[in-house]
């Protein structure tokens, strides 16, 4: 655990004079490859016979005129 306590020396090479380190992107905890703003909600959840979502009642229910 000495490496976590910062007791070991830093072996990274020093940056040249006058240069700044690159900004690292802040990663989302659950979505590390894509930007959090590009996430779209999942509308069709569940199995094909048991859909849960905003349009699920329209596809599953039959009205008397449909029969």
From TrEMBL:
Residues 1-23, 46-67 are annotated as: Disordered. It comes from the Eukaryota. Residues 56-67 have a biased composition (Polar residues). GO terms for cellular component: ribosome. The keyword Ribonucleoprotein applies. Keywords: Ribonucleoprotein, Ribosomal protein. This is 28S ribosomal protein S18a, mitochondrial.
